[in-house]
Amino acid sequence: MEKKRENNKLIASNHKARYQYFLEDFYEAGLVLKGTEIKSLRLGHCSINESYIDIKNGEAFIYDMDIPIYSHGNIFNHEPKRVRKLLLNKREILKLSNQVKIKGYTIVPTKCYLKDGFAKLEIALAKGKNTIDKRETIKKRDIQLDIAKQLKRG
SS3 for 35? Predict the structure, then answer.
């Protein structure tokens, strides 16, 4: 019996998303990339902190995702912040667009990683937090840090 092993390599994660939004439903989407973009991703170069996702004409796109220029590329190198198409099922796209239109949600990227050699993006359906909610998040994090310090001391 052969075991299939998943090779996941985290490239980038969006820590701001967990702080600024309540994340609810998570989806895994593929990325449509050009040749030098995947090479740059394999080197671990990517930023999704300022990026956002929009749905137009039944297709999902990611904006402002920064994949730096591949250093060993030639004149056919890619544009770093170009709009990239996301690969999702039609059913998933419909569900996401309905949630965004009706309930006021937004779609944010949370992680970018390589899975079995393919570039994947974890996206989440998110609702914005108030200032009070953000303070509570900070308070919970501080309490967890204090508990960890106390346990470490013994």
Answer: helix
Q: What is the pLDDT of residues 91-143, one digit of tens each?
A: 999 999 999 998 879 999 999 999 988 999 999 999 988 888 888 888 988 99
User: Whole-angstrom Cα distance, residue 54 to residue 100?
Assistant: 9
pTM of the model: 0.80
Nearest residue to 51 via CA among 11, 127, 110, 102? 110
* Helix/strand/coil for 46: coil
Tokens 């999704």, residue?
48
Among residues 63, 73, 61, which one has the least CA distance to residue 29? 61
Cα 118 from Cα 1, distance rounded (Å): 25
Q: Which two tokens stand for residue 148?
A: 């960890």
CA–CA distance, 154 with 147 (Å, rounded to integer): 11
Distance CA 22, CA 134 (A): 10
